[in-house]
Amino acid sequence: MWRDELLDSFPIYTFKSPPSIPPNPSCFQINIHIFLISVEGMENPLRLKSLNHISIVCRSVEKSIDFYQNVLGFFPIRRPSFDFEGAWLFNYGIGIHLLKSDDPNQMPSINRINPKDNHISFQCESMEIVERKLKEMKIQYMKARVDEGGISVDQLFFHDPDGSMIEICNCDVLPVVPLAGEAIRSCSTLKCVLQQQQAVNRQDFSHYA
Question: Would you say which domain of life the source belongs to (predicted)?
């Protein structure tokens, strides 16, 4: 099955003799938020591969660069010589393309945080650290929690300088369950499989210590 081949394609190491270089945990990194799902009978008519970038119209390119770089951790990258003002940033496998508004004064003023607005969502390692950092940077935010089947997902919502909504969450704990077709391994399940294999590999490697 395609799904089993996907799992087999991950670099999982077993050792029959002492390796010259210990296993590198970074080899097990998985992009948890963007992954490929194949369901029998489902097609990919446009042959899409991944999300490339998100474009955001802003009043001030400089202020937006400061936010996406110093708050969200993106870094500026080279941008083609367009005939309009903007900037490109990149991290976490996706790009942020900032576009200077043709009429900044006419952009809507958004002050109220509404979790149901259009937004970009990022997963994090620690919700506690994120909340502490937002407080230190004096960024207004809203907290929410989703409880589903005994699993709790924590969320933090806040705005960029122009009111575009940002979410930070620990959504990887929530299994991805398709509405039709066979059950598909969730992101968290894939991570669990790799963690189990890592534990086995560490046990095998300990014989050579």
Answer: Eukaryota
